[in-house]
Write a structure and sequence with these properties.
The complex is a heterodimer of chains A (about 300) and B (about 210).
Chain A (H helix, E strand, L loop, with lengths): L2 E7 L4 E3 L19 H11 L6 E5 L3 E7 L2 E6 L2 E6 L2 E3 L3 E5 L4 E9 L2 E6 L1 E3 L29 E7 L18 E5 L8 H9 L2 E7 L3 E5 L16 E2 L4 E4 L5 E4 L6 E2 L3 E5 L1 H8 L6 E2 L1 E3 L2 H6 L3
Parallel strand pairs in A: 13-22
Antiparallel strand pairs in A: 1-4, 1-12, 2-3, 3-10, 4-9, 5-8, 5-10, 6-7, 6-9, 11-12, 13-20, 14-15, 14-21, 15-18, 16-19, 17-18, 17-20
Chain B lengths: L3 E4 L4 E5 L6 H17 L4 E6 L3 E6 L6 H13 L10 E7 L5 H7 L4 H10 L2 E6 L6 E4 L14 E4 L3 E5 L2 E4 L4 E3 L2 E6 L19 E6 L1
Parallel strand pairs in B: 5-13
Antiparallel strand pairs in B: 1-2, 2-4, 3-4, 5-12, 6-7, 6-13, 7-10, 8-11, 9-10, 9-12
Classes of the chains: A mainly beta (about 300), B alpha+beta (about 210).
């Protein structure tokens, strides 16, 4: 059986597939890749990939192929990749032979990278998906992040079309686009104006559940919103906690929220937001719903 | 009851039946979620009832927000569904939680009187979804309402029975909570190895019994 062994896992390296939508009323968010576009591109590189790949965080991951051969594709952010001692471009694809060692180390950009394979990772589906939910501790590899020593088994090879070079990642700068949120009307006009005219900063407190933002301008320093009846949450919701901290809820978000939500990051910009490193300055720009639905990443 | 129809991000709509948790708003949300499930609207990929609102996730390529809002208004104004009752479940509780004595003190009741008042009437599952399998049950009569605790417990285990704000809640996973812990149950409403993973859904009826 084709197997890879994890030699070094940065924090929060998890197995992910396209996610587990449709289970919010059971109290579970959909999970899935933090950067869906990069995850998809890795599959395009292979011309056909197993549904499940490895998502790793900025510290990277190392693994060795123990048995058999695998084709693999790497994408997302900008990492340093070394296969059997040879430096490779990023993103790329490669054929891994028995004994091959893959070493992914921090690179210039991004928080999340992906490796996908031409075989399916053999883990049990939970509620129709192999994605790891870090908030519920289920799915993926025993419901947890990968650790050194884990031996991941693979199934039969996936039928592949000729592989392609995916459209390269366009480095888009500029504001993160939002539409006004469920509770925008609970914030006064000055606060709403400051939200879109002042800048925030990605804080080091970020994970698959949410990204806390620094609010140096004090936009929400005096925000007091009475407690709300909780409603369902969607990825990208920007919630203002009781102490005024803004938090952008991500793929493993809490299923419901009772704090006010001033805005929601549009679907087209959530991948790019997920890749912003701690310390990055963020501006938010409001769009109408119609423009948000037409927007491209 | 005319609800508020709001966009939630660019792929979801929230239909809100009130700003406060009332019986009326909760029943309207549950009734609407059943209608939306039964209508199986094209382009709607998920229906999520909340305490006083319902989330519809939709595919904008299949149905626009405006068209969906029109469908929602039609569903809301349609004939009442006759309040189908949900399924009934009996949940057996050991009333020995660490906050039980504080709760009965706040209510000026003996433990026995509290248990008998608590279990006296069947409760409705008001909502699920706060955490895997978590259920809110209510509403208790006004004489059984206590506020939440001032501080949050960082972790209570699965099977904890919680009490606050006129409701009793049951955990199926370990969670942090600011509610009073009044007891424990062997009942679990979440088993990820099964589909569906939960037995109780919003609108079901729960009868509590002391073990």
């Amino acid at each position: 059986m084709v197997t890879i062994r994890v030699l070094r896992a940065g924090p929060l390296a998890t197995l992910q597939d396209a996610g587990r939508p449709g289970v919010l009323h059971y109290g579970l968010s959909a999970s899935g890749p933090m950067d869906r576009g990069a995850f998809h591109r890795a599959g395009v590189w292979l011309g056909g990939a197993g549904s499940t790949g490895i998502e790793f965080t900025s510290a990277g991951i190392s693994f060795a192929v123990e048995d058999g051969s695998l084709s693999a594709a790497f994408d997302g952010g900008a990492f340093s990749l070394n296969i059997d001692g040879v430096a490779k471009y990023w993103p790329t694809r490669a054929v891994l032979k028995p004994g091959s060692k893959v070493d992914i180390t921090p690179g210039a950009d991004g928080n999340y990278g992906y490796v996908r394979f031409d075989r399916e990772i053999e883990v049990t589906e939970v509620l129709g998906s192999r994605a790891t939910s870090s908030i519920a501790g289920l799915g993926g590899w025993e419901g947890r992040a990968l650790r050194t020593g884990d031996a991941i088994p693979f199934g039969a090879a996936i039928a592949r079309r000729p592989s392609q070079h995916p459209r390269p990642t366009e480095v888009t700068a500029g504001p993160i686009r939002v539409i006004w949120g469920l509770h925008a009307d609970r914030f006064d006009a000055d606060t709403r104006q400051a939200f879109i005219s002042r800048s925030f900063r990605v804080s080091p407190q970020l994970d698959r559940m949410g990204v806390r933002l620094g609010d140096e301008a004090g936009v929400f320093a005096h925000t007091r919103v009475l407690s709300l009846v909780s409603d369902a949450v969607v990825p990208g919701d920007i919630q203002i906690l009781g102490d005024g901290t803004p938090i952008v809820l991500m793929r493993d978000h809490q299923p419901t929220g009772g704090y006010p939500r001033i805005a929601t990051v549009i679907s087209a910009d959530l991948d790019r937001f997920a890749q912003l490193r701690p310390g990055t300055e963020v501006h938010f720009e409001p769009l109408t719903l119609a423009h948000a639905q037409e927007a491209r990443p | 009851m005319t609800p508020l129809i709001l966009p939630l991000g660019d792929q979801a709509m929230l239909i809100r039946f009130g700003d406060r948790l009332t019986d009326e708003a909760n029943l309207a949300a549950i009734d609407f979620s059943r209608r939306a499930d039964a209508a199986a609207l094209q382009g709607v990929v998920e229906v999520v009832p909340n305490l006083v609102s319902v989330l519809l996730r939709y595919e904008p390529a299949t149905i626009s927000f405006e068209r969906l809002a029109g469908e929602v208004r039609l569903l809301v104004s349609g004939e009442p569904t006759g309040q189908q009752r949900g399924r009934e479940a009996v949940v057996r509780v050991e009333f020995d939680g660490e906050d039980l004595h504080e709760v009965v003190g706040l209510l000026h009741l003996s433990v026995d009187a509290f248990i008998s008042a608590h279990n006296g009437l069947p409760l409705r599952v008001l909502a699920t979804g706060f955490a895997p399998g978590f259920v809110y049950c209510g509403m208790h009569q006004d004489s059984l309402v206590v506020p939440r605790r001032r501080s949050v417990r960082r972790r209570v285990s699965a099977g904890t029975v919680l009490f606050a704000a006129g409701q009793t809640a049951i955990t199926s996973t370990a969670i942090p909570t600011g509610w009073h812990v009044i007891g424990r149950t062997g009942f679990r409403n979440f088993d990820p190895s099964r589909l569906p993973p939960s037995d109780l859904v919003a609108g079901d009826v729960v009868r509590f019994e002391a073990t």
